[in-house]
Amino acid sequence: MDQIVIRGGRPLKGRIPISGAKNAALTLLPCALLTDEPLTLRNLPRLADIDTFGHLLNNHGLSTTIEGTHPEEFGRVMTVRANRITSTVAPYDIVRKMRASILVLGPLLARAGEATVSLPGGCAIGNRPIDLHLKALEALGAEIELAAGYVKASAKSGLPGGRYVFPLVSVGATENAVMAAVLARGPSILENVAREPEIVDLCNCLVAMGARIEGIGTETLTIEGVRDLHGATYAVMPDRIEAGSYACAAAITGGEVELLGVGEAVLGSTLASLREAGVEITPTRDGLMVKRTGTLHGVNISTAPYPGFPTDMQAQFMAMLTVADGASLLTETIFENRFMHVPELARMGADVTVRGRSAVVRGVAGLNGAQVMATDLRASMSLVLAGLAAEGETTVSRIYHLDRGYERLEEKLSAVGADIERISDG
Ligand code: UD1
Fold it and tell me: Quick one: residue 126, left, alpha or beta (phi over 0 = left, psi -120 to 50 = alpha)?
């Protein structure tokens, strides 16, 4: 398995282009199931998860065509067409590789009247049930059965539509419900929905395909089902988590990096917490300049659904705060097991104590390089960040996690002066 080797201690300086958002792309791709016309997505990141989603769509009978963007360029254009759905089954072999496969459930049900999707099972950052996906679809009129590790959803004469109040905010369940409701026979009201920018991106794409959705970006979505949707061309929003991660890279190394293609609004509360920690951020013509000249200060953070602090930035922030002046309290309210980077950061000299859902980080003068490995995507990035600031050499293994979510990470970081390379073990 490949490894990443980093020789730390160099302040990063330069420009980093921000790719299209992985989590937006993973909910925009299944929208292609909702129409027999082509859906063209621009600015799709080149990531393992996107390829896996493409295979899943091929498995349902969709054609996927990638336009020949130059290999040196970031992102690509993919046209997906579902003029015929040949299978409504999402098999275990694909779903177990990528939890987001569950996002074909709503659109398959809406378009084909049935869907059989493997249960995703547990994952490293917690239990991650899908009960809310199922309850929301039931409220829209689906019949749901669970058997032999699969969810079978059906609505033989189409979904009637309905009302559902989410008991807790779920990004994925909101996405599935929205994609199902847009083709329902009647109106639907979804309350206490997730308001993440990726949900806004999904709704905007569906509207471009002819869907009727009101309340986009608020807690309540009112959806008037339409008989058919049509094709569209849509550009995926920039990845706010990738941007936030590179902002932490600039900050932890005391560097100066311009993040290209993102504005202040996209980063939301991540930006406010970076500023509170002493990071200077200024809008530029092409994006945002992120710079740290003074010391970093400890900050307290509690993850929460948007517009709160994103759980997907918690590990990277923790890495940054290990070298801040003073203590920080990080509370994880979304996933129950999302501190797995802590023992690895400790191997690099970080001082972190975990008590239940909170972690106290006491800033240290510096980190030292070590051999580390991570169990999930964002935890892996936190180790890369620590490695960029550490004295000596850090080897990060299991980097397939990084390939799932960071487009050409080592290329982007070397271009701003990091000493980072991928070692293939053949
Ligand atoms: C999405 C993101 C992930 C991010 C997370 C929270 C994608 C592909 N992934 O994941 O990167 O960390 O949002 O911002 O977009 N829950 C239930 N029952 C359900 C569904 C969720 O109890 O049916 C719980 C989860 O266990 C978790 C919380 O709700 O504790 C939020 O999860 P959710 O927003 O659904 O996360 P995902 O959509 O899986």
Answer: left
